[in-house]
Fold this sequence. Notes:
Elements: H1 2-22, E1 31-35, H2 41-49, E2 54-57, H3 60-69, E3 76-79, H4 88-94, E4 97-101, H5 104-116, E5 121-126, H6 143-150, E6 156-162, H7 171-190, E7 197-203, H8 210-215, E8 220-223
Parallel strand pairs: 1-2, 1-8, 2-3, 3-4, 4-5, 5-6, 6-7
Helix pairs in contact: 4-5
The structure holds pyridoxal-5'-phosphate.
Amino acid sequence: MSQRFKQNIDEVNGRIADAAAKAGRSASDVTLVGVTKYVDAEVTREFAQAGHRVLGENRPQQMWQKQEALTDLDLQWHLIGHLQRNKAKRMVELAVLIHSVDSLRLLKAIDGFAAEQGKVAKVLLEVNVSGESAKHGFSPGELPAIVEAAADFNAVQVDGLMAMAGLAGDHVDARREFALLRSLAETTAASGLPGNVKMQDLSMGMSGDFEIAIEEGATLVRVGSALFK
Length: 229
Ligand SMILES: *Cc1c(COP(=O)(O)O)cnc(C)c1O
């Protein structure tokens, strides 16, 4: 079992290195978030012990359950899915990065809990780059106002943006959507950022399209099925 995970991790890391090389980037600038949502805590343990400790969950409760079962392991948890405000407190305690901030109210709630906990919560702003109505995230046009508003939240650090390619699209669409996310980060940064906003990180790319995302500038790729096959 864990031999299989070692192989999968090596294979995905190899593909990340190839995609980075093709784009003239360093593989060390790309963080692999291993998405454990398809498996239970015990399989997650085997996966972590096979060598990968940076993990992502899209459901808060599943993250908590796994985290509780695996407290003996030194894991870094990333939240990649929708967060409700009533779960934000515990998420701020646990997650090293919340990729999926999709409303100003949520950002404000995260800020409040982080301030209470005496920490600075690291987040990304999710952007709906495909325009699909089922997708969470800010529209590109909303971003400047959100960035401006973020200046008031001292206990939050916005590291960058996150997106998912549209479900209906192909690789050409995905590339265009990833390029859009990068250009949104660049244009937002060019118009001046508050001190707690850095448009450095781009979380984009999943099993089916992470190489394209890396070519378009991803610094975090969220990969599940290619690691748990
Ligand atoms: C499930 C999920 C992933 C990983 O998807 P795979 O195609 O299995 O790699 C990435 N990002 C989010 C937000 C997800 O929910």
